[in-house]
Specification:
InterPro entries: ClpP/crotonase-like_dom_sf, Tail-specific_protease. It contains 11 helices and 14 strands. By secondary structure, it is α/β, with parallel strands linked by helices. Residues 1-12 have low confidence and may be disordered.
């Protein structure tokens, strides 16, 4: 699905939500209005919509919904529905409430004590210099609902500026981009902030249900482009780092837009991926409106690297398991492997 068709879909879905939401009077009315729109969205745009027996699925769901006495409780049926149709990456949300298939994450013993300790702090974006020689960027989850160009720019520019400041003040032998805590969100500010490393290139792509190219995503002079459509931008500063040595670290919970960020570096020269295989949420979502202020992340495509290659999960070039050390980076096995790569 190309971007202009996605925009048209947004308009159609939003319009139907507006009119349908006016019909709700009782709890059962609200339930019917909500699920009518949810099914409409899925049948129009869900990636695997053509392989779903919608008549039977919708009939079963509507029968189950009769057992709910109020609208709030009926939202528990979303998970059941998504499981039936294999919509493992779709999510319905409003404020802090989220409804989706339960994420199958690795058991806690798969993670190092250092990783768990750092994860519990809810780490944010970090840029620093290690040992006076190596740039380090911790790119965490970045998630927001306002997808306007101005808001994406407001989020991305300060992140980019921090990297540009380190770039301008240091002569570094290589850069480490750490995605171990990047569980998803919005890829646009992530990739815009990393523009200096990616340069003006096609950086990832979207595939249709047959895994054939649908559209490419490109960075061009600091602008994020869907085909020829400008989505947002940063104001670049100084020389590019598109030929600098870069090590990208992935982890067991690197997912969704975290995986897109890793994909953007597949095919880039002077680049190595280090760490653990990612979680495997390599499908693309759009935002779709639902009644009563709800929205959904609706899966419409597969993600690919810049060469159109799809990966169920991203497997690093150099495997490192439970080698984390955030108290002393020079003892972190992922960073040790990064330094070996820089010194080659």
């Amino acid at each position: 699905m190309i971007f202009k068709n996605v925009l048209a879909l947004f308009f159609i879905l939003g319009l139907s939500v507006h009119f349908n939401a006016q019909k709700a009077k009782t709890s059962q009315d609200s339930i019917n209005v909500f699920y009518d729109q949810l099914f409409s969205n899925l049948k129009k745009a869900y990636l695997h919509r053509k392989s779903v027996e919608w008549k039977s699925v919708e009939s079963e769901t509507k029968e189950n919904l009769k057992n709910y006495s109020n609208f709030k409780n009926s939202l528990n049926e979303i998970k059941v529905l998504f499981e039936k149709i294999g919509a493992t990456h779709c999510t319905v949300y409003k404020d802090q409430n989220r409804y989706s298939v339960t994420t199958k994450i690795p058991p806690k013993e798969s993670f190092s004590e250092q990783w768990k300790k750092k994860f519990d702090t809810k780490p944010g974006f970090e840029v620093k210099v290690i040992d006076g020689k190596y740039g380090y960027i911790l790119m965490p989850k970045i998630s927001f609902s306002d997808m306007s160009a101005d808001n994406i720019h407001r989020v991305a520019q300060p992140l980019y500026d921090q990297i540009a400041d380190i770039k301008s003040k240091n002569k570094l032998e290589g850069w480490i981009i750490d995605l171990r805590f990047n569980t998803g969100g919005n890829s646009e500010p992530m990739l815009l902030s990393l523009y200096d490393f990616l340069g003006s290139n096609e950086v990832w792509g979207s595939l249709d249900v047959d895994k054939k190219p649908a559209y490419k995503i490109k960075l061009s002079n600091g602008t994020y482009m869907y085909n020829s459509k400008k989505l947002s931008y940063i104001n670049p500063k100084g020389e590019l780092l598109d030929n600098a040595k870069v090590a990208v670290i992935t982890g067991l919970l690197t997912a969704s837009s975290g995986e897109i960020t890793a994909l953007a570096f597949k095919g880039r020269p002077n680049t190595v991926l280090i760490g653990e295989a990612t979680l495997g949420y390599t499908t693309g979502n759009i935002q779709a409106k639902l009644p009563f202020g709800f929205e959904m992340a609706l899966t419409t495509s597969y993600d690919s690297d810049r060469n159109g290659v799809y990966y169920e999960r991203i497997v690093p070039d150099i495997a490192v398991a439970k080698g984390d050390n955030f108290d002393d980076f020079l003892l972190d096995k992922n960073i040790q492997e990064s330094i070996k790569f820089f010194q080659k």
